[in-house]
Design brief:
The chain has 396 residues and is an alpha/beta fold. It is built from 14 helices and 14 strands. It folds into 2 domains: 259 residues, Mur-like, catalytic domain (UDP-N-acetylmuramoyl-L-alanine:D-glutamate ligase), CATH 3.40.1190; 124 residues, Alpha-Beta Complex (Protein-Tyrosine Phosphatase, Chain A).
């Protein structure tokens, strides 16, 4: 008898306790034990950046998907179900398959201390070698150069907007972070990039030139093109997907017309969970992402007061996120998350008050009740982490 899905989840949970250590040594050793699944993948489009990776992949999946092209995606983190991370044509890996492959990886690599993300990445690659899809849209984790996914040899590299995040792992300056993200650029493999700040643009130019890789700079799609995802920032992400599709079309791929972008869906991105009361959710978890959500919400609220339900991890630039939020909102509810990595909710509320904004605290279990009795005269924003999505969505 092989592992059950519950047994697999127990094993995976134990790996969450391992300290995240960027580096490819464990991945290289483990992939060798598995006969190098990264060499047997369908053509890979490798996507890195700080914000917009998932949305860009969603748009690109719409442009590439057809009866003649089955598109696999590997994304992270998930919102409700771990299996969301590994999909083919929008259908997640089955519980039975992920348990079976998870057991295989664990047994063959029993003496390699694979982290949570490394383990899942190897499972995804093993699954996607089974001749089930025609291409793979592969999202990096938090980095680039030393990210677990960076053992792939892509046909195209994509860089979404790069901003400051994960300072402890990637560097404290924008240049340091950009150089790490550019670590996925491969010799001779074309690069498609979102519009970037000047310092980031120069990093991309330098990294690409040193590896003799051409760069195609994307532009936002015009307002005349309908998008299925809300917010002006999604026009940048859609533009990156369009530029990538343009290159792929030139390489002989079948690409759909821009009209498919209007049907693109990607949960948790400026998603209205409810209209009465108005409750918006967004996965923004850094200042750049938070600013994009506020810019979108500013076009909607029309003077209505705003309450934010905010949870966050300690390693995020929390003070900067709060500074973005408080000029626009008049109340913050700090949500206590049951994670050792989460910021203390009382400390978060105190930080908000220091910025002159009212704040109180609720538990994650208490969030549904707060949302269910939310004042319809207000607009309500739930944000700061992916971990709030499933609970917030279940409440409405």
């Amino acid at each position: 008898m092989g592992w059950s899905y519950d047994q697999f989840l127990d094993t995976l949970t134990a790996r969450q306790e391992l300290i995240v250590q960027l580096g490819l040594e464990r991945m290289v050793a483990a992939s060798a034990r598995l006969r190098h699944p990264e060499h047997r993948l369908p053509p890979v489009i490798h996507v890195a950046g700080t914000n917009g990776k998932g949305s860009t992949i969603a748009f690109l999946r719409s442009l590439l998907g057809s009866p003649h092209c089955r598109v696999a995606t590997y994304t992270s983190p998930h919102l409700c179900d771990l299996r969301e991370r590994m999909q083919c044509d929008g259908i997640s890996i089955s519980p039975e398959e992920i348990a079976q492959i998870g057991e295989e990886v664990a047994c063959r690599c029993h003496d390699i201390p694979l982290t949570y993300f490394e383990y899942l990445t190897l499972i995804a690659f093993q699954w996607m070698t089974r001749d089930r899809c025609d291409c793979l849209l592969c999202e990096t984790g938090l980095g680039g150069r030393l990210d677990a996914t960076n053992i792939v040899q892509p046909v195209l590299t994509v860089l979404t907007p790069i901003a400051q995040d994960h300072a402890a792992q990637l560097g404290t300056t924008l240049v340091e972070i950009a150089r790490e993200k550019c670590g996925i650029v491969k010799p001779g493999i074309p690069v498609v990039s979102a519009p970037q700040r000047d310092t980031v643009r120069e990093c991309i130019r330098a990294a690409s030139a040193s590896r003799e890789a051409t760069v195609l700079w994307a532009v936002p799609v015009p307002a005349s093109v309908p998008l299925g995802l809300a917010g002006a920032h999604q026009r940048i992400n859609a533009g990156v997907a369009m530029a990538a599709a343009q290159w792929l079309r030139g390489a002989g791929w079948n690409v759909a017309s821009p009209g498919v972008l209007g049907a693109t869906r990607w949960d948790g991105r400026c998603e209205w969970l409810s209209t009465t009361p108005p409750i918006l959710y967004d996965v923004a978890h850094n200042p750049h992402g938070m600013a994009a959500v506020i810019d979108y919400l500013r076009t909607i609220v029309a003077g209505r007061p705003v309450t934010v339900y905010l949870g966050s991890m300690r390693d995020k630039p929390i003070a900067e996120m709060v500074a973005v939020l408080v000029p626009f909102v008049d109340q913050v509810v700090a949500v206590a998350l049951p994670s050792a990595r989460a910021i203390d909710a009382e400390a978060l509320a105190a930080l908000v008050r220091e910025h002159g904004c009212a704040a109180d605290v609720c538990s994650l279990d208490g969030l549904p009740e707060r949302l269910q009795r939310a004042d319809s005269a207000r607009c309500h924003l739930v944000t700061g982490t992916h971990q709030l999505y499933a609970v917030a969505r279940s409440a409405v």
